[in-house]
Amino acid sequence: MRNFVLFGPPGAGKGTQSALLLEKYHLKHLSTGDLLRSEIAQGTALGLEAKSLMDQGLLVPDSVVIGMIEKLLDDHRDAPGFIFDGFPRTQAQALALDELLKIKGESIQGMLALQVDDEELLNRILLRGKESGRSDDQDPAIVRNRINEYNRKTAPLIDYYRGQNKFYPVQGIGSIEEIFSHLCRVIDSI
Ligand code: AMP
What is the DSSP letter of 137? Predict the structure, then answer.
């Protein structure tokens, strides 16, 4: 199995690039943001709990997202590998992911970290909010909260993966095709 964490702040292009990567490498895409939005759309209790936090730009509790990932790994035992998008976002999630994969005799091959500066991120997110109608992309105060959550709780994961020699920075500015080719070059070299 080939398992990669596609990493980066909100608006870095993780969703866009995941769609291209899974087509080329035939990997299964696991986006906790998409899973949570689907729970909200279905009106489940989990969705209701998550929505109030997501609407404020805050992270959903670790236990909720770890439970979702555990179930999906079980549901897709035959997948040739996974692209984790938007997960892990905290140290507890990274540790849980390593444990869950270890039980299956698997591991993460690399954290592909898209590098985009803050100003570009804010512009991209607000544009995406206009185009997609995603409520947490439309309000600059919520977007700022999400970037703060990223800087406080998620960015430290770079050190976690660097400590395992799995940190691969990738230039996240340029055309979609250019960024995709940077990512492919890194994946092919791992
Ligand atoms: P995303 O689509 O990845 O930008 O996620 C949208 C929102 O869902 C985030 O702002 C969080 O509120 C929540 N979320 C998604 N993934 C996670 C995660 N791994 N841990 C905690 N909260 C998450």
Answer: G
